[in-house]
Automatic annotation (TrEMBL):
Keyword Transmembrane (UniProt): yes
Membrane topology: Single-pass membrane protein
Pfam family, one: LRR_1
PANTHER family recorded: DNA DAMAGE-REPAIR/TOLERATION PROTEIN DRT100 (PTHR48060), L DOMAIN-LIKE PROTEIN (PTHR48060:SF21)
Chief location category: membrane
Taxonomic path: Eukaryota, Viridiplantae, Streptophyta, Embryophyta, Tracheophyta
Record-given protein name: Leucine-rich repeat-containing N-terminal plant-type domain-containing protein
Domain annotation Leucine-rich repeat-containing N-terminal plant-type: ranges: 34-72
Length: 150
C-alpha cells in the first residue's frame, strides 16, 4: 500500500516538473527577455564607449527606452538597432543572431572590429544591414543570402 502511494507521488512529481519546465521554456521562447539578454550581450562586446551611450542599457529600465533601441509597441520586441556614429569600439556579439524580429541594424561609422558573425544569418526579417565605416575584417558571410528581404 505504502509503496503504491510512494510510486504515484513520484509520478506526480515527475509530471509537475515536466509541465513546469515546459512552461518555463515556452515563456522564454516568446518572451522579450531574449531581446533584453541579446542587448546586454551586445553591450558586453563593446569595450569602449566614449560618450557613454550604452550607459542607460541597464535592467533598471525597460529596454525599449535604451539609447538606439526601437521597440514594437505590440510585442515589445526589437525591430531596429541604431547605433551609428557613436564612437563605439569592440566586436559584434554573436548574440545579435537572437533578435528574431530585427529588421534594421545600423552600426555605421564606429570602430567595431573582428569578423562579421555568422549568426547574422539567423536574422530572417532583416531588410537593412549597415556596417560601413568600421574596422571589420573579412567578408560578410555568404550565407547572408538566407536573409531574403535584405
Ligand atoms: C516584456 O513584456 C511585458 C508584457 O508584454 C511587459 O510588461 C514588460 O515590461 C516587458 N519587459 C521589458 C523588459 O520590455
Ligand atoms: C537613454 O538615453 C537616450 C539617449 O540619450 C534617451 O533618449 C533615453 O530616454 C534614455 N533612457 C533612459 C531610460 O534613461
Ligand atoms: C562619425 O562619427 C563621429 C563620432 O564618433 C562623428 O564626429 C563624425 O561626424 C561621424 N562621421 C560621419 C560621416 O557621420
Ligand atoms: C543567444 O545567442 C547565443 C550565441 O549565439 C546563444 O549561445 C544563446 O543560446 C542564445 N540565447 C537565446 C536565449 O536565444
Ligand atoms: C549559425 C551560427 O553561426 N551559430 C553560431 C552562433 O554563435 C554561437 C556562439 O558563438 C556559435 O556556437 C554558433 O555556432
Amino acid at each position: 500500500m505504502e509503496r503504491i502511494y510512494m510510486n504515484s507521488l513520484l509520478a506526480l512529481l515527475v509530471l509537475i516538473l515536466a509541465v513546469q519546465s515546459c512552461i518555463v521554456s515556452l515563456a522564454f521562447l516568446f518572451s522579450n527577455l531574449t531581446d533584453q539578454s541579446a542587448l546586454l550581450a551586445c553591450k558586453t562586446a563593446v569595450k569602449y564607449d566614449p560618450n557613454n551611450v550604452l550607459g542607460n542599457w541597464t535592467t533598471r529600465t525597460n529596454f525599449c527606452n535604451w539609447a538606439g533601441v526601437s521597440c514594437s509597441r505590440r510585442r515589445q520586441r526589437v525591430p531596429a538597432l541604431r547605433l551609428q556614429s557613436m564612437g563605439l569600439a569592440g566586436t559584434i556579439s554573436p548574440h545579435i543572431g537572437n533578435f528574431s524580429f530585427l529588421r534594421r541594424l545600423d552600426l555605421r561609422n564606429n570602430s567595431f572590429h573582428g569578423f562579421v558573425t555568422q549568426n547574422l544569418t539567423r536574422l530572417h526579417r532583416l531588410t537593412h544591414l549597415i556596417l560601413q565605416d568600421n574596422l571589420l575584417e573579412g567578408e560578410i558571410p555568404t550565407s547572408i543570402q538566407q536573409c531574403q528581404k535584405l
